[in-house]
Amino acid sequence: MIPTPHITAKAGDFAKTVLMPGDPLRSRFVAEHFLENAVLVNDVRGVQGYTGTYKGKRISVMASGMGMPSMGIYSYELFNFYGTENIIRIGSAGAVNPTFKIGDVVIGKCAYTMSTYGSIAGSSEDCTSASPKLLKAAANAVKTLGKYAVVGNIFSTDVFYDDGTLMPLYKKLGIDAVEMEAAALYINAALAGKHALAVCTVSDSLVTGESSSAMVRQFAFLDMMELALEIAISV
Asked: In order of start, what are the domains of the chain with their CATH numbers?
């Protein structure tokens, strides 16, 4: 089914590997600052998708929007209709682990959630693992670039303005960071037999209360972007 209700790109417009930020402006930023010969292939609802090359390899970047329903739609359509094999989420996360600092890069090895997304989509797992292939590629990319990144457990929540009632659960599960999209991405990848990984930057701390500005969230997480691109060219 091409085009889909949410993507007007033609067959073949997307690369096999797609970087997926939540924010459409971050998608455009990656295209303009990292990709060569980037072409806009989707702009439905302002959800910008581009395809270009990075270090000679064809790569796409497209926004997912905020939350699991939105990520669920876009990743499902890319995996199942556009032939995408790998999706790497590049987004922000709130630190639960007290050792994490603002700006740290977190690679999600497993995404927990309490959302009904998985049960409705057809998954019965409380925690869905990232692709082993992409986790290995991430480890190699960290060494190649000399970047600092931590592999940890993430929790995908439906509620951004949480009053703190879930903190005991986060500690019980060994959660390191909280965000809002990865679980839907991992579930869709598992059901489609594809590959997914979340590479997130700590923008807030649920422990200290520190927070990044909206502008920093859009444009300043360069280590995460460079790491994700290095992973993308190796798979």
From this structure: 17-233 (3.40.50.1580)
